[in-house]
Known about the structure:
The complex is a heterodimer.
Chain A: H1 6-15, H2 17-20, H3 24-47, H4 52-69, H5 78-110, H6 118-133, H7 136-147, H8 151-175, H9 179-187, H10 192-226, H11 234-243, H12 247-276
Chain B: H1 10-48, H2 53-70, H3 83-86, H4 90-122, H5 130-145, H6 148-159, H7 163-187, H8 192-199, H9 204-238, H10 247-255, H11 259-288
Helix pairs in contact in B: 2-11, 4-5, 4-7, 4-9, 5-7, 6-7, 7-9, 8-9, 9-11, 10-11
Amino acid sequence: MTPLPSEDTAKLRERYPEVFNRPASSRLATPLVIVAALAIFIFGLVDLDFSPSRLIAGVSQLGWISMMMLPPDPGSSLPAYLIALGETLSIALLGTTIAAIAALPVSLLAARNVVPSAIFRFPVRRFLDSIRGVDTLIWALVWINVVGLGPFAGVLAIAIADFGAFGKLFSEAIEAADRKEVEGIRAAGGSKLHEIRFGLLPQVLPVIAGQVLYFIESNTRSATIIGIVGAGGIGLQLAEQIRVLEWQKVSFLILMILVAVAAIDWISSRLRFAIIGRRAVA
Amino acid sequence: MTSAVSILPEQQLASLNEAYRMAVRRKRLRTLFAMALFALALALAAIGSEVNLRTLFTYFGNFVSYFDRILTLEDHTRVWTNFGEWFWGWQKWLKLLGETILISYVGTLAGAVLAFGLNFLAAENTSPAPWLRFVVRRALEFARTVPGIVFALIFVIAFGLGPMAGVLAIAIHSTGALGKLFSEIVENVDMKPVEGVRSTGASWLSCMRFAVLPQVTAGYASYALLRFEINVREASVMGFVGAGGIGQELVVAIRKFYYSDVSAILITIILTVFLIDIGTGWLRARLFGGEARA
């Protein structure tokens, strides 16, 4: 690219002063943000005990670990791992289903077009928000205290964590529904319940089904990790093998998780497209 | 306004009705079949995860009373009657909370920078070579699918206990997640500017810098902020496996039945998550206008 002759540049400068002479505040904004972001980053590195020597030692250690992971080998515990994987999938499926069934009525209460009064809606929404603010792993710990170690605690943890998420997603789906059908039913003399059953539900059920399938998929991932705190499934095996440094088993378990997640992804995206047609699910 | 509905002759009507009924019946049959299949899967799952409704009913009272207990101080008064006693460790907790936020900040930024470096290689329209794209994509997929806390478990052994393992785990997981989202944005850019820059004889790097980057920065920043929100939650549990942050304190409180501490720490976590959500939401709205709220 050849630069423009200087008289042309001068003419351009004259004609578009707002491009060439931006105020200092807008010219400095981007570099300032970048410098601030970097400053916090470096402060963080220092505060969190990062040091090059630790990093190098850790990376070489990590290299060793990855070498030891090859080849993946379950040893003699393959049947136990398969059972654990089945447990994980069961936890995901059951937890999500319970959450969806419980969340549907609550989400109606949180939707603006069903419950118009904000005084009533507000506490329901905040309640759902606080449930969502707590991570699944924390819920798992709480449920372990209540029902004891094992997959059942995992099911309940997933159910309650998703209940919060579903409540919000469903109520958004309901709010996005078309009002005309509801009005049609009201005009035909339907009661409030009729409006929900015949006006709203047929519109939102496909959306909800799509979301539930998507969550079963993402919960397969969550269910693999809640075992780490003792709530059953393949995560329990994984955490144990990591603690006793059986790296070949660890890599095999990770591979199993990857394959299972990919398989569930594939199935549920097929089902999702079958239910809602080829459009994206939010 | 009046209008007449024309009534079809009996015979035609009968055949139409018949066809309608058949269609409805087929649809119902299919729904019924799907539901039976689903119920079967549920039953299997219930056996697989040792669901025991009796335990649930006997213990459900425990669940409710658990919340009663975490809201009671040791001297049997409600927590909110004595804030000083309830939040006795607030200085320590705030410090740990700060560490948690810092972990997620450093992790998100590192992950975003790595994802930024890799995503042009992973996007279909900008990748310089198909084999490179394949390799980068599989690597990102791996980083995304393995849960962050599993990385943390392994890193704790490699790098030692402490927040460093948490930061690295979050960074890797964020690289995977953001790399995919970023490359999807790149795949949706307008290719005409790229052709324009290329036609001047520019290199691949200049094409990315001057044609693609200006189109995608807003989307990148929006996703990175969203990821930061998610990572704050993630970092709050990293302490469960010894990877720093407030999780360590929480897991000790839950396991050792320090009831009022559990509720105090949970409330500080929830409040922090709220504030971060609101803050990043506000920031995104300010930076990119209302429509960019994904």
